Amino acid sequence: MSSHVVVLDSTARRATIKTTPGKHLTDVLQEACTKLGVDASQHGLKYKGKELDLSLVFRLSGLTSGAKLELVQLSRSPSVVTVALQLPESEARGAPPNRRLLDKFPSTTTIWLVLRKFEAGVAGGASTRNLTGRGVPSGNEGAGRLYYETPVVQIMERELSSFTDLQKSLAQLGFNNGNVLLRLSFRRTEEPLDEAMVKIEEYFKPFDDVTPKAEEPPAPTEQPPQPDTSNKEEEAQQQPASTSEAPSATEQTLPTAPTSDAPAAEPTEVPTGFSRPITVFSPPSNTTPQSAQTNYNETDYIPSIEHAQAHQRRLNATSRPQRLPTDAEIAAKAAAEEERLAAVTQVDVKVRLPDQSQVVAKFGQEDTGKSLYDFVRNCLAAPFASEKFTITTSLPKTSSGGQPGRNIQNIVPDSDQQLLIKDLAMVGRVLVNFTWDANASPAARQSRELLKPELRTRAQELKVEQPKDITDNSEVSRPKPTSTGDGARGEKRKPGGMPKWLKLPGKK
């Protein structure tokens, strides 16, 4: 017995879909979206204001023939689905007593990717096993050729065995939340194993090659020779401060560090006992901070209309639901970040000491946190070279889960396992702070001459060009309130006079 349902979208367009008792609601949704020209993965069905479970068949959904269903748009953020994989007896080794592996997946995960994660031991916490690349010998042929044994997944009353079916995601099968049980079995095919593996690479390459793509970016390092690259960068950095810099360099520079001192901070000479060119800046001679010498202007703290509009835009942006990135987007972002860091050949690191003296040096791709600590230790005077200290940086903590844009003090590890550019993401010009350890001697903490004498003699003064004060003494003309109507006429009236509109008895 066949029946039909009517699917209505938000614009009152309708699509009539024929159904059978054993037809899944996901197939109804797919046919309706095809007729209406929308994406089925971003829509769902509602009946009388209640969202339908798309994993059910028509006879179990409680719908009647001719029911009118609403086509609604779902959230773009994937939801979490708890998946239980029921293993066959042949795969009971290393599995729980009930032969079920349990884990949680995003609703956008395909059935094939679920099997791959379970067989790799990434999901379920079990040992590795072979679920997608099995081969069985043929007893009729003497050559003993292996034939492919395809995985067969049974979900409720639906069986998935072909490569096309295994490409479907949990959401496409109607599982957007809750729990789902996958019963796994194997079926021998007449296709040789080597031919089946070629087809698997063609069908599931987008899912299996997500992680290898992140290993390719180091290739850009094999480019022009090192001397030519360094010369180009030195010429670019010697240009005036008005020259626009790359976004990656400006992100690592602290807001308090002026750009006008960039040409003076270029390390050019290699002192005796050092392996890299350095530049030394002496402590400031004035005890008053530079920020305290700026003239106070009260109008600088009055928000403008542009500030209010920008604040309103930020509030509107944070009030909207944000779509979580998919696994492919996360992998692509990580690959792009690795490629960006691999293209950086060197970085300028400025070390600020407790006595306010500063040392600038260049570090390359092969330099580690230990290289930075050894360099700073070599710059200290002999009495303080054996004291313990730490180096901190204020790089934006975005890759480790912090809020983007927040500068958090991170300790640079004194280890040869952490690269400055690749692992610590130091790019462009980076300012690091020198801090004495808690066990350092009082003499080291109170000393105002931490650097070696030969470095102090070659120290230069850090000059910061300040913009000229431009005071706008012009008064803002404010329009005076103008009154209209009778009020304006009343101001021109003589004192004691009567208005024209006032009519008293006995007067014409």
Task: Explain this structure.
The protein is flat and about 95 Å long. Mean pLDDT is 76; it is low at 207-264, 397-405, 474-479 and 483-490. Strands 6, 7, 8, 9, 10 and 11 form a six-stranded mixed sheet that branches. Strands 12-14-13-17-15-16 form a six-stranded mixed sheet. The protein is built from twelve helices and 17 strands. The protein folds into three domains: 3-73, Phosphatidylinositol 3-kinase Catalytic Subunit, Chain A, domain 1 (Ubiquitin-like (UB roll), Roll); 80-209, Roll (Ubiquitin-like (UB roll)); 227-235 and 246-286 and 330-457, Phosphatidylinositol 3-kinase Catalytic Subunit, Chain A, domain 1 (Ubiquitin-like (UB roll)), CATH 3.10.20. Helix content is 23%, strand content 20%. The protein is α+β, with helices and mostly antiparallel strands and 508 residues long.
